[in-house]
Each structure stands twice: as structure tokens, then as C-alpha cells.
Amino acid sequence: MRTLPDRLETSWTDNADAWTNAVRSGAIASREAGTDAAVVEAVLLGLPPAGRVLDLGCGEGWLVRALAALGAQARGVDASAPLVEAAREAGGRFDVLRYAEAAHDPMRLGGPYDAVVFNFALLGDDVVGVLRAARQRLEVGGRVVVQTVHPAAVEPPYRDGWREETFADFGTDFAPMPWYARTFGSWVRALAAAGLALADAVEPVHPETEAPLSLVLVAEAA
User: Fold this and answer.
1) Four-residue CA torsion sign, 155, 214, 98, 81
2) How many other CB atoms are found less than 10 A from the CB of residue 1?
3) Most buried among 50, 64, 85, 197, by the most CB within 10 A?
4) Distances (CA, A) of 171 to 10, 13, 19, 132, 207
């Protein structure tokens, strides 16, 4: 029987086509409402001209392309070969790499980078290893940017634990995906365990409802 972390990883292969279509067709309303702009702004803040950025868990590659269009030297990696293939077809530099492989050998990430970003891409229960790998591949003064589900937007109880995403709002072609919800304090502790210190926390809200759209954590090497 597959474990929840195994199911999480394989879901990004199972859902690769559906995810690519949802992103590129504009089916994810929260992106237009502010999450895309929030992560781009957080990455660009303080980034030097032609700064080097790694998008870890890049999916179909939209963020790499957006950052490259704004002058960054951006690269993406993802564990899902079908998603990386879709990303390459749209243009840009992308490679297949599992988080466990990066944690074991951070040099496989390349770099060093001025920023490493995880955009809704830290969904498992064990994130410290890959966060530590990201820290090790930072330039001096570089930052790690994590955009994640806002803890206040998660159904109670307010505690760490596995949940299930059905993607019901995005269409009918998705297989359910397990994911691990964290409290704000849990995120801070995970960053600290990886040798990172929280420098800023941004909480974009929906322009009409003013409900939290996400949580963006910006961290620096401790």
C-alpha cells in the first residue's frame, strides 16, 4: 500500500495534463486574484539585475517564464517528468529532480542562486531536507521564498496534519491529492530547522472578499 508521501508525489504525474490545462486556461481563480503577483513580487524584491532564480517544484513552468520575461535568469526543477516536458515545450530551462535527491545532494540543484522559490510546492510532511538544500545553494544575501496555503484558510482543526485536495473548483479531470497542512508556527520551525530565518511574511487577500489568498514566507540563511 502506498504511503501518503508516495501518493502526493505520484499525483503530480497523474494530474500533469489536467494541471497544465488548468494553469494555462486560467481555471484557478486565486492566481488571477493575487497569488501569482504575490510570488513574483516577493522573488523580485531585492533581486539584482539578471539575478539567478531556482523554482523548486516548478510544475508546468509558468513562474520561470514570468521571471525570465522580467529579466531574471530562471531555472525550474520538478519531480514530475510529464510536467517538466510540458514546461520545456513552452520554453525555458527545466530538469527532472525529486526533492529527496536534492536533499541528498544539493549540488544537483546547480547555482548558486539569488533566490530559490517554492510556489505551492512544499506539500509533504517532511520539508526540512529540501529547504536545507535550497539554503545551501543560495548566494550570500540570497533568499528562499515559500508561497503556501494560508493556515487561516484551512478547515479546522488548526494543527499540522494530512488533508486531501479534490481540485473540485478546477474541473473534473483531477485525481485527489493528499497534502500536509501546517500552522504558521510549524512553518517557522521548519525554516529554522533548515538553517533559515524568517525575514518577512506577506498575506495577500482577495480584492473583493478580503479573505486570505495565501501566505508568502521570505527567509534568509540564519
Assistant:
1) positive
2) 4
3) 64
4) 19, 17, 10, 35, 24
Return left, alpha or beta for 144; rule: phi > 0 is left, psi -120 to 50 is alpha, else beta.
Answer: beta
Between the alpha carbon of residue 1 and those of residues 4, 65, 162, the distances in Å are 10, 38, 17
Nearest to 181 by CA among 57, 4, 30: 4
Q: Is the pTM of this model over 0.85?
A: yes
Under 8 Å between Cβ of 52 and 114: yes
Report the distance separating Cα 5 and Cα 189, nearest Å. 20
Assigned C-alpha cell, 82: 510529464
Q: What is the pLDDT of residues 127-164, one digit of tens each?
A: 999 999 999 999 999 999 999 999 999 999 999 999 99
Q: What single letter denotes the amino acid at residue 133?
A: A
Q: Which of 68, 209, 73 is nearest to 152 (CA)?
A: 209
Cβ 87 vs Cβ 144: under 8 Å: no
Q: Who's near 36: CB < 8 A, 6+ residues apart?
A: 62, 63, 66
Nine-digit cell at 167?
Answer: 481540485
